[in-house]
Amino acid sequence: MATATVGDERISQTSTLTKLMKRPEIGALVAAVVIFVFFAVTTEAFATASGASTWLRGASTIGIMAVAVALLMIGGEFDLSAGAMTGFTGLVVGVLTTEYGLNIWAAIFVSLALALMIGAINGILVMRTGLPSFIVTLGTFFVLQGIDLAGTKALIGQVAIQGMSNVPYYDQAKKIFGSSIDVNGSGAGGQIYASVFWWIGITAVATWVLLRTRTGNWIFAVGGQQTAARQIGVPVLKTKVGLFMTTAGAGWLVGMLLLFTTSTVQSNTGVGQEFIYIICAVVGGCLMTGGYGSAIGAAFGALIYGMVNQGIVYSGWDNNWLRAFLGVMLLGAVLLNEWVRKRAETAQ
Amino acid sequence: MATATVGDERISQTSTLTKLMKRPEIGALVAAVVIFVFFAVTTEAFATASGASTWLRGASTIGIMAVAVALLMIGGEFDLSAGAMTGFTGLVVGVLTTEYGLNIWAAIFVSLALALMIGAINGILVMRTGLPSFIVTLGTFFVLQGIDLAGTKALIGQVAIQGMSNVPYYDQAKKIFGSSIDVNGSGAGGQIYASVFWWIGITAVATWVLLRTRTGNWIFAVGGQQTAARQIGVPVLKTKVGLFMTTAGAGWLVGMLLLFTTSTVQSNTGVGQEFIYIICAVVGGCLMTGGYGSAIGAAFGALIYGMVNQGIVYSGWDNNWLRAFLGVMLLGAVLLNEWVRKRAETAQ
Amino acid sequence: MSVDSEQPETGSGASHGLSSAALPPVGTAILEVRDIGKHYGNIIALSEITTSVRAGEVTCVLGDNGAGKSTFIKILAGAHQHSDGELIIDGVATTLGSPREALELGIATVYQDLSVVPLMPVWRNFFLGCELTKGVGPFRKLDVEQMKLITKSELAAMGIDLRDVDQPIGTLSGGERQCVAIARAVYFGARVLILDEPTAALGVKQSGVVLKYVAKARDRGLGVVFITHNPHHAYPVGDRFMLLRRGKSMGDFPKQEMTLEELTAMMAGGAELESLAHELEKTMGPDSEIAKTIKADSP
Amino acid sequence: MSVDSEQPETGSGASHGLSSAALPPVGTAILEVRDIGKHYGNIIALSEITTSVRAGEVTCVLGDNGAGKSTFIKILAGAHQHSDGELIIDGVATTLGSPREALELGIATVYQDLSVVPLMPVWRNFFLGCELTKGVGPFRKLDVEQMKLITKSELAAMGIDLRDVDQPIGTLSGGERQCVAIARAVYFGARVLILDEPTAALGVKQSGVVLKYVAKARDRGLGVVFITHNPHHAYPVGDRFMLLRRGKSMGDFPKQEMTLEELTAMMAGGAELESLAHELEKTMGPDSEIAKTIKADSP
Amino acid sequence: ACSGTGKEDATKENSQDLTYAVITHSSSGDAFWDRVKSGAEKAGDDYGVKVEYSSDPDPAKQSQLIDGAVADKVDGIVVSMANPDGLEDSIKKAVAAGVPVVTINSGVDKFKQFGAITHIGQTETIAGEAVGERLKGEGYKNVVCVIQEAGNIGLEERCKAVGSTFGGKVSNLQVDGTDDSAVQATITSQLQTDKAIDVVLTLGGQYAIDAVGAVEQSGSKAKIATFDLSEDVIKNIQDDKILFAVDQQPYVQGFLGVTTLYLKDINGNDVGGGQPVNSGPAFITKENADAVLKFAANGTR
Ligand SMILES: Nc1ncnc2c1ncn2[C@@H]1O[C@H](COP(=O)(O)OP(=O)(O)OP(=O)(O)O)[C@@H](O)[C@H]1O
Ligand SMILES: Nc1ncnc2c1ncn2[C@@H]1O[C@H](COP(=O)(O)OP(=O)(O)OP(=O)(O)O)[C@@H](O)[C@H]1O
Ligand SMILES: [Mg+2]
Ligand SMILES: [Mg+2]
């Protein structure tokens, strides 16, 4: 037996590099580097401190959601209400504070509680009814969208939060969710926003959970083969409901980041973003069918999306073609990604 | 051996009704009936000839796409470019005829050829690269969307086709794609549009193909277990590329129906509809994971969607809540659907 | 590759499982079923089965393809809920809501379809649901090294020499996958071990090891339910034989009451076997091994 | 349920398959492999295998779990492409691009994982890829009645008595599913029949039927590749035995050159078997059947 | 300035259970159209008539909504015609069925031809041209026009109209209007790239706030102008952060649309006598900002 470990004649030599290359996120990493280099070379502003601060910020809020959505997708489910959730939580805080004068921290807490509750409802509905999460969360999405619009309108008479910055203790909350750090001292450009730190933190935690904890093991299992996971004794219900709540929680966090960075949210904030999150997760190596993927990959996916989005602006290309460029770049990134992954897998 | 056929003690009695009840579309049918009755009772206009003509028209174009998308989903793939395709084909015809004076039939033919080509590219990309169709067709979607906007603007200087009805032979094409038949003689209301007939025809053909031809068998197989299907000798590539082309073809048909019914399309026509098609297919009993579903179910799904959409307007509910109602109704329909299906499956 | 007696005692895992309930004395019924039945929709897969699984005994469930054996053990394992009758565990009538409940009662199962998550590495599959951790509080993390080590050595003990326990289990060969499932169940099984055709995809040597495990588990006082189509595997280790046919029980026989030949005949469906032997003789010549075997077996 | 000789001749399906190429004379090599090898990434699953499949002969491929048997037959079946060496069909070196190409050459395969589409009805699975149709032109439609009938009767002939061929195949028992896969391959196999552990999940009777089919196919002049872990199944029907170990060929022996005992010993891995037998004797007592068998088998 | 007319006439006897449908090409949650809706609903409340508002940016769907309203036998339809060709059949059918139609906002060229009684509004073009002229007058050279919804006809036309009178360079910038953070980032990028930009023109009050942030972040000297108001916009105008806002007075369009139908029904009036009635535009600058702040806070201006 012992002879099998070293020098097994059935394995050809493998370098550590090749081993690293087999991680699901490697393709996205390479694609991100390629895109960075491309825009850094072809445009002036892209690789400057102030340019980077811009696309990092754009990527960060999407990235936080993409990481949460990636966990959920690895667990084999979708959450289409994730986009609307970011608007919903922001609106709740905005309405409660500007209109009803609730303490800002209390309002933040209330909106977190609501978000988690909605997440739990999503999860329980999916698990109890056996309906696909695509449909259940689509229902929640529509309902949230309706509430965002009609509720806000009914309560404050308009469709966007106004006057947020006059709310007491606003600055406290802004410190945590909406502040920025100057990198190069000069006030103009080169800030790093709080959301970027949150993004990095969330990605790190998610990666840790996924790879080094029991919960992570269970997430892979319920997404890979739910029946098998159940038969082996994985608490499927708990795991999945937890994932839906995590996504909702991330939606809340992003809602706060948006609210306190721009000091406003509108009733259609986040609508349509849910697919961007899924796209970033897939670009980052998650399988649509579940059971495979990585959190850090999703973060790279968001980075790619953010860079492409701003890079196109920096390039000064005809703006009407924006979508077409975005499509081509995305396809290119994913193809590169896949090519790298295939090479890595068949590497000897 | 022969004794097993009649009176097998291992099967409890089953009525023909229960057997029928096991079709995937049965839930959607029941849900459609419930929704029809609901709106027929609560609103005045809904069940009138003119009311029905309105929601049938709305359902028909969505229904055609939903049926095609259902086939594709049964075959295990998605097409996110399906929505943009409807706008794209309409714009191609509009631009070629109004701006370049091309013969209308030639333009229609060109746009069909383009659509099929894009469908084939989608299919071949998906199969050759092994990328998820969700991502590949998302790329195509973005590219189409960009072309729709920038191309149209560059060529005709605006974002909507105008003056279509002055094009020579417009009436010929309108006969086929855009005419309507009066049902009750009075000019106002009670028309059945050409699109409704197309819808019924497409649904019938799709159902026939799915259940009674080899191709149908292959569609179920490639969606249910692609590896197994390939190992058994099903021509997987041909089947899948064919499905993508079918969806693109349906997109073309809907583009024509839109163009010749309203005599205009806009550069953003169809954007966002792709998910509606998927939703209708799922409501109609298709599995997101492929290998299971029905064409007629998707048609019922579209019917439900069309009825709910128009029914809410007839009910005079506050428009701001539209989405919320839609969400609740959809969830309700799917839950009812699932309940019926479960009952049917465990029926003795 | 040698499976010799010097290697560390594996499969002695009363302490690994979710439950560490003390084992009852040999012969006590841990699981009992009374008139249990199961139907899927209008399909009646099982009806009126009565038997018991006792500590320190191996109950073999025999029967033709589609007789209902897997359905039966899925009920014991909590994977399916029975439609009729009673399932009694430790003397209390209950319904197992999920396999996890069963596992918590110390009932470990190897399913016929193995229940593995194809995309996950072998070691993660091995410990799925019972992961080893180290550290405390929020820093409690998987003890990856330890788990890989145990996986490797448990499989080695079964005669499976894996290149890399980090390989996705979906890329293992059929027999290798089966061995992982068995090794896992043996490692975690605390009071009852249920094996659904564990030796189906195994080589001669691996089959021998599995039979050895079964015997060991029995000797340690576990109740074992063992399903196989191979009478040569069933007879040596079995204490009681329950025969299913078309979803019904044909009886429950202690080993004393039957010989290997009777058992084989029973498994093959008795009288009908003769005509098959006859036919095989025709096609393969009267001296063919299999024809002789089957002929000898038929009453 | 009786499998008697009066029933219609099934499995005589040279005309059903995609190919109806005439069968070459007995003994001609239909498939040949020369120094063939296969690696998955850095995993070398097979290297330097040389053998041939001849018309009217049964080639048994033997070997431990993970030895590379399934990999080998997947190359023959077109499901995988070989990385090294040559695959020669009818004397021409080729690479099979897809299983469909293999099928068109008359090579039908039963895979170890069965290749069925779980959600599809049994009859659709049976005829998948080779559907029967009636009518002409655009009105050509599936001949559903006929297909259901054939499915039912072919399965009945194997001793599988299905309630309803409209059941999704995923709801069948393991053995039933295996029988569908076998019946299908036998029905469509025109020149070469490849069976990967076909009897693994089967009852005694069904196994007998499969062996009978193999013998019949051989007698009709087909080349058969047969994988099994059961020497009692391999020996009676096999004409040549190829032994794989750890991805390498240990040789290719004609039946004349070996006895059942030698074969068993070879399959179990020779010398190591003795220690296992020894151990089993210890655990189960020296009179245990299995210990005796294994002991007898070991050289 | 036109609100409140006719309130005294709104006695129960006169309103005879009237129902009007207001059908626009708005996408959901659009701030401009939300004010149109508010105006129409307020008129409905004041006159004691029922107003049913619905909208869809897709002309095919919008025409279905019109057909639906006709089937529902409403007493009048107020419709915005962003894409006249798409609505032609439906509007003509409504007119043929005896339902009075009033067009609002856009469609001034076609309303007569389709048989509508009048047109209330101000096309995107008028407002855009006015902005262009004003910016030109103040000596600006390079405008970036921020479009928050790709392919929206109204938005495209506004930018185009600005260009037609402005003289200098006008470039369009597509942003994702559902993500304010991305809007800000994109505007920032554009300002970093093209340092010559001296005006950021946003097409919704909400996005002006994002633009304020973007200008600060990028360190650009660009000024901001915007279509439409909100409380925050006016505060920013007062703080000199926004140059001016164009108030298209959407509330007026909704309110007058319903009023026109109402007057036709109870009194046979033809408001405008067949000529279009303009509803705007009005410029809000630091000088008159205080006066409208209160109304903007109500969400009616
Ligand atoms: N896709 C794959 N990727 C990596 N390794 C693989 C893959 N498929 C098979 N292997 C490895 O190749 C070896 C041979 O596998 P194969 O399935 O051919 O074995 P086998 O002889 O059929 O065994 P068994 O009797 O258990 O079915 C195994 O060790 C397996 O782990
Ligand atoms: N989910 C299901 N739905 C419908 N029928 C089912 C389902 N599962 C099993 N059956 C049927 O119940 C019967 C018993 O199946 P089971 O798997 O218990 O057989 P088994 O005795 O384990 O056979 P094998 O030896 O082939 O594994 C079979 O005829 C099968 O077709
Ligand atoms: Mg079984
Ligand atoms: Mg194998």
From TrEMBL, chains A, B:
Identify this protein by name.
Xylose transport system permease protein XylH
Q: Which UniProt keywords apply?
A: Cell inner membrane, Cell membrane, Membrane, Sugar transport, Transmembrane, Transmembrane helix, Transport
Job of this protein: Part of the binding-protein-dependent transport system for D-xylose. Probably responsible for the translocation of the substrate across the membrane.
> InterPro entries, per this entry?
ABC_transp_permease (IPR001851)
- Which PANTHER family does its entry note? ABC TRANSPORTER PERMEASE PROTEIN YPHD-RELATED-RELATED (PTHR32196), XYLOSE TRANSPORT SYSTEM PERMEASE PROTEIN XYLH (PTHR32196:SF32)
Subcellular location per the Swiss-Prot or TrEMBL entry: Cell membrane
Q: Where are the transmembrane segments?
A: 26-49, 55-73, 80-98, 104-127, 192-211, 241-263, 275-308, 320-340
Membrane-protein topology: Multi-pass membrane protein
UniProtKB/TrEMBL annotation, chains C, D:
Biased amino acid composition, Low complexity: 11-20
The residues covered by the ABC transporter domain are 31-271
InterPro entries (UniProt xref): AAA+_ATPase, ABC_carbohydrate_import_ATPase, ABC_transporter-like_ATP-bd, ABC_transporter-like_CS, P-loop_NTPase
Q: What is this protein called?
A: ATP-binding cassette domain-containing protein
Protein source organism: Aeromicrobium wangtongii
- Note whether Nucleotide-binding occurs among the keywords: yes
Name of one Pfam family that matches: ABC_tran
Q: Which GO terms describe its molecular function?
A: ATP binding
Tell me which UniProt keywords the record has, alphabetically.
ATP-binding, Nucleotide-binding
Disordered, as annotated region: 1-20
Compositional bias per record (Polar residues), positions renumbered to this chain: 1-10
